[in-house]
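Protein in question filed below.

…
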Amino acid sequence: MKQIKFVSEEIWEKQFAAAVRHNVNNYFKENKISTKGNITLAAQTVATFSLYIVPFIILLTAPMSAWLALPLVILMGIGIAGIGMCVMHDAVHGSYSGNDRVNKIMGGSMYLLGSSVFNWKVQHNIMHHAYTNIEGYDEDIGVKGPIRLSENSPLKKIHRYQYIHAFFFYGLMTISKLTKDFSQMIKYNKEGIKKSQHTNLKMEYFKMVLVKLIYLFAFIGLPILITGFTWWQILLGFFIMHWTAGCILSTIFQMAHVVEGAQQFKPDADGIIKSEWAVHELKTTSDFARSNLLLNWYIGGLNFQIEHHLFPNICHVHYRKIAPIVEKTAHEFGLPYNLKPTFFKALGSHIRRLKQLGQTS
């Protein structure tokens, strides 16, 4: 894969990058606090794991009808999404804790979804964060079957009503990872990414297969063996659980990058984006519902995506405090700061953007 370079001839863009780093770092120095997690993160960790594990234990041990089991599997899906957004996401970025071992353990919560930590690191940390909203590099805006998320990808008839059907397919995100991980790992190996990350390919394959087998036995095999539910009820519950998690995760991710005002780019023939990287992140990312404390708590600060993209090594529990600093600095340099005031304003903007992408070239 051809490497992308961010090259700007504007001195003020470099000055902005330096200024926003200086201003945010000063906040932590002046307040004498760590950039990593705190007691709030610990509480989020316990709560989201409980949402996932406690309903599962009840399903395994308490006889009940399928209708009573339904809200429990939905609750598990909500828990999966919470773990992904509040725990795994920060840990894999190294921002959960100042202790690398703790980050590795908490990052391993990805295995509770039966997925690969390594693949996530490549897709999210390397590709998405480095090349946000760049066609052919950021897989988050890549073509996803009947969904077109990039203005630079081919437009097809099936995309015309994607603003209606997209959310059903969003729900397939986590369950598709159970098989997609294999093709994704092969792709990253061919592109030389595994080699650049000094990764043992055979060990990663072995670990991935083992994790998936254990996961499928625990969440499908075990219920078949010890509960009174039929096999098809268990498979349906497994699907509903994953669909709930996938729909939440995909929608939240897309509301930060595929909304009105969030630009998309293609590199020139030499693989160059003519912008400072920090400025590029401002142009391609959006915050939403910053004052919604409950939402901020549950989605792990992913409504503060501008701050997260500029400072991925800072834990999300601090984003609400540093957001005004970043916004003020952006305005001082005449840069856009894309902010949707509420969740529903952001959701509406995403739906309108889906409609635009489905009906225009």
User: Anything to note?
Assistant: Residues 5-359 form one domain. Strands lie at 5-6, 272-273, 287-288, 339-340.
